């Protein structure tokens, strides 16, 4: 059930069938010279939509903006502050909880470390606040680690490379503009630099030339499998906790 597409009445009926919801997160961020700025959000939302075709679960409209540290100065990146992201997470979960939802899977298509830390910190706060919720937090890189073993040729695939390009060739073929050179950025260790773009000229982390639509199909299928399992896990954990309390 896509929350943006259903009515008030549909929501009332839906809540009788499931108390679970996926909140997709993304970013508006450079993805090399060949992928659209909305790549992270599009991927997280498209995977979540397919999960909702398999199991009863609500899917929130995606949180389009994220915190982008390394790519902040690249053309087109629109980054929000950590506190803003934390507040969005807190407010959205608060409101969904008020609506009766109890099992939350936060799925971020953007996997920046600081971005994820903000989501995690806010989720922990919500876990402390409510005694009846179960919360899971996963990112695109967790999907890669858990679901794509043996699928990728490029060991250092991370950003606008083999996997993201393959998925976008499948999901938004008209938005993919050829390819970009293979690239692995190297930022100064321990030192923060303002002009991160000079250390990451092309905005790619990996090798997009190894991408294909066929590979995108396999990756999408496995990603949907993994996120579906995560929805079930979050639900089971809540049932388990409730049982523990009851006995
Ligand atoms: Zn990305």
Any key phrases for this structure?
alpha/beta; 4-stranded parallel β-sheet; 7 helices; globular; binds zinc ion
Structure commentary:
There is one protein chain. α4 links the parallel β3 and β4 (134-139). It is built from 7 helices and 4 strands; from the N terminus they run αβαβαβαβααα. A 4-stranded parallel beta sheet has the order 2-1-3-4, with helices on both faces. The mean pLDDT is 95. 45% of the residues lie in helices and 8% in strands. The protein is α/β, with parallel strands linked by helices. Residues 31, 39-40, 159, 164 line the site of zinc ion.
Task: Return Rg in Å.
Answer: 18 Å
Q: Let me know the average pLDDT.
A: 95
Q: Which sequence of SSEs, written as H and E, runs from N to C?
A: HEHEHEHEHHH
Heteromolecules bound:
zinc ion
| Structural class by helix and strand composition | alpha/beta
Oligomer: single chain
Q: What percent of the residues sit in helical stretches (DSSP H or I)?
A: 40-55%
Q: Bin the strand percentage.
A: 5-15%
Distance from N terminus to C terminus (CA atoms, Å) equals: 33 Å
Number of strands: 4
Uncertain residue segments: none
- Adjacency order of strands in the biggest sheet: 2-1-3-4
Largest sheet: 4 strands, parallel
The shape is globular
Question: Nutshell version of this structure?
Answer:
The chain is an alpha/beta fold and 247 residues long. The protein has seven helices and four strands, in the order H-E-H-E-H-E-H-E-H-H-H. It is globular and about 50 Å long.
């Amino acid at each position: 059930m896509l929350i943006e597409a259903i009515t008030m009445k549909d929501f009332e009926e839906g809540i009788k069938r499931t108390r679970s919801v996926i909140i997709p997160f993304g970013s508006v961020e450079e993805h090399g010279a060949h992928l659209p700025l909305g790549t992270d959000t599009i991927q997280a939302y498209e995977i979540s939509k397919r999960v909702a075709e398999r199991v009863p679960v609500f899917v929130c409209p995606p949180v389009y903006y994220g915190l982008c540290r390394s790519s902040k100065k690249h053309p087109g990146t629109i980054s929000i502050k950590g506190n803003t992201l934390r507040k969005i997470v807190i407010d959205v979960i608060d409101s969904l909880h008020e609506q009766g939802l109890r099992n939350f899977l936060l799925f971020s298509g953007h996997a920046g470390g600081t971005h994820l830390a903000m989501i995690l910190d806010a989720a922990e706060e919500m876990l402390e606040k409510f005694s009846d919720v179960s919360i899971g937090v996963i990112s695109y890189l967790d999907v890669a680690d858990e679901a794509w073993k043996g699928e990728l040729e490029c060991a250092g695939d991370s950003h606008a490379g083999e996997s993201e390009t393959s998925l976008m060739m499948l999901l938004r073929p008209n938005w993919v503009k050829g390819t970009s050179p293979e690239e692995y950025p190297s930022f100064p260790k321990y030192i923060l630099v303002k002009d991160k773009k000079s250390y990451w000229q092309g905005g790619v982390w990996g090798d997009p030339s190894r991408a294909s639509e066929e590979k995108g199909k396999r990756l999408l299928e496995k990603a949907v499998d993994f996120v579906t399992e995560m929805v079930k896990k979050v639900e089971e954990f809540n049932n388990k906790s409730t049982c523990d309390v009851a006995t």
